[in-house]
Design brief:
alpha+beta, 9-stranded mixed beta sheet, two-stranded antiparallel ribbon, 32% helix, globular
Length: 225
């Protein structure tokens, strides 16, 4: 490991991550109340996913090491006015990653009062199984910047996860937030059968043993705002 990389990792551990943890505890819930209002107004169904969903079903709130919020939107929803509605209310679009111009995969990151929220778009596969995407460094590359410079974008991994469109509101800290009715199937498919036991070694986007496939025929294109 280079000295620069070691210093960056140390700085992230002692400053960046604790700062983001503090922000999400202070402003995370007010931000989700506002986000939920916008999604209801726009008529766009969504659900908590990944670490935020895991927290909802296991902790009834944020998991200990979470420092952002993860939600999913079904890609066939009418999301054409979503960016305008969010930015009008104070959400700042920071980054968008697309695969095949968003026809195969899309992920957006917004910031609101120092808290980041990732919106993951899921695409229908079959029955109640939907495809999502996660992104990695390209083989032989140390980071995203090198992946973009050498390959034009990021390595794409396709997830296949149960994600019913039906949702229900459940307690999350002292508010109510929506989760898919296949929430338990989702977290087990993503994190394994021992998902009820906290894994201190987990670092997103660590993959499990099943429910994903690498897609060397695809590339993730990043646009920063």
């Amino acid at each position: 490991m280079s000295i620069f990389k070691a210093l960056r990792k140390f700085w992230k551990k002692i400053y960046v991550d604790p700062r983001r943890h503090a922000f999400i505890r202070k402003w995370g819930l007010p931000m989700m109340v506002k986000f939920d209002e916008i999604m209801r107004e726009q008529g766009i169904p969504y659900t908590l996913v990944y670490g935020t969903l895991l927290g909802a079903v296991r902790e009834k709130g944020f998991i200990k090491h979470d420092n952002d919020i993860d939600v999913a939107v079904w890609a066939d929803s009418n999301v054409s006015a979503l960016e305008a509605a969010l930015t009008k209310t104070g959400f700042k679009l920071c980054r968008r990653i697309t695969v095949d111009n968003g026809e195969f995969g899309k992920e957006e990151t917004y910031k609101y009062n120092h808290v980041y929220i990732d919106i993951f778009y899921f695409y229908h596969n079959h029955d109640d199984i939907y495809n999502g995407t996660v992104f990695f460094n390209q083989p032989g590359c140390r980071n995203w910047s090198e992946s973009i410079r050498k390959h034009g974008g990021l390595k794409v991994v396709q997830l296949m996860l149960p994600l019913r469109k039906e949702t229900e509101y459940v307690p999350f800290e002292d508010i109510q937030l929506p989760i898919t009715t296949s929430a338990l199937d989702f977290v087990e498919a993503r994190y394994g059968e021992n998902w009820r036991i906290p894994d201190p070694t987990f670092v997103y986007p660590k993959l499990g043993d099943v429910n994903y496939v690498e897609r060397p025929d695809k590339i993730g294109i990043i646009k920063r705002f």
